[in-house]
Amino acid sequence: MKRVLIITYYFIQSSNIGAVRLRGLAKYLCDFGWEPLILTATLPNVTETHPDMRVRVIETPYEDLLITWKKKLGLKLDETLKEQFELPTHKNKNTITDFILNCWEEVFAYPDIQKGWYKFAVEGADNLLQKESFDAIISSSSPVTSHLIAKELKNRYGIPWIADLRDLWTQNHYYSYSTLRKHIERRLEVRTLSTADALTTVSQPLAENLKELHKSKDVYAISNGFDPAEIVTGSQLSDNFRIVYTGYLYKGKRDPELLFKAIQKLIAEGFIEPDEVVIDFYGYEEGWLEMDVERYGLQDIVNVHGLIPREEALKKQREAQILLLLTWNDPTERGVYTGKVFDYLAARRPILSLGISGGVVEDLLKETNAGVHTSSQEEIERALKKFYYEFKLKGRVGYCGISTKIERYSQREMARKFAVVLDTLANR
Q: pLDDT tens digit string along 84-108?
């Protein structure tokens, strides 16, 4: 069996989308002739145990840049700046704290805030590679420090290297730094990835973007996936018309306001009975969300629960009549799968998606028949009417996902695609 070293900053944390992707890759690569070993950082405040899978994990120390600066400024180490100064989070609006933090990151956290991991990871990998042999390396970002580490190892040992960009680097639509920094960082990106043997990302549109910048590179689109082991059939559905959302809202970039407008209108028209519908949000609490709920008079319908453990979140998904999926209503989002869509596929419940039309999420839902995508209030109302009518008629909303199509988005299939690329590089 061939061996691959996977370099990823996030691995143990279950809530991180990148960690889920890499754990799935590590779990199923063995089925396709590749034995993975994970090099990762020992992160603080992680209570989860190591994932139960056929893989070795080597954790290295790291230097936390933010904690270092908190010590310099005499701030509390275990609280964010917003928590310490009791600052609110505004919808689609940056606060003065956001501005200051962004300026600090632009200057001091180049190329990312996890750069303090570099020296420890290179040292740990160096010790490992002097004793053991590997047929390939995969580095996964964010953070992009993972690629800087892999480049150094590639230079030292000449091992074939795949740079996996779950999020694009300077082409990322969430990129928030100045034009000057972007210019400097783009040169770093091109220089760093020039020595990679192949690039991977999560969708075909993002792969095309990468190819435009890295013209000489082989670029592959390999989507994230759900873990087949997390599929549980026969779950008891809620008795009411329950819509569930689990995940981040990114200060309103993923905005449920159109849903609130649609629900308010359908209740006013008498189509939906208010005592039968419940909307649950599970994730970081954001003050603006509760303000929107009050604005539309939905305090008795919408519940904001805060963060819950991943296993509990999966259970809530399986019990829902409808799963709410929110994407950023922006053209640059068309090539982005939110990681939550794959959890939802495993839950086997109908998905109501809100966001930009013509994107990969809409294509996925059409292909798998796992739900419906909407991009306007009128489309949301039509979808809700259809779902609610079925609920009233049958006591539940039926699920019509096509299993054979859905299996194409499993982590096992993701690992198979990575194995194909790894085999290609190893056989050169």
A: 555 566 666 566 666 677 777 777 8
> In this structure, how many other beta carbons lie within 10 angstroms of the beta carbon of residue 300?
11
The confidence band for 47, taking pLDDT boundaries of 50, 70 and 90, is very low
Contacts of 12 (CB under 8 A, 6+ apart): 19, 40, 43, 46, 48, 50, 51, 57
Q: First and final CA of the chain: distance in angstroms?
A: 17
The predicted pLDDT at position 49 comes to 47
* CA–CA dist 324, 262 (Å, integer): 14
State the pTM of this model.
0.87
Amino acid, res. 402 = I
Query: Ramachandran region of residue 306, left (φ > 0), alpha (ψ -120 to 50) or beta?
Result: left
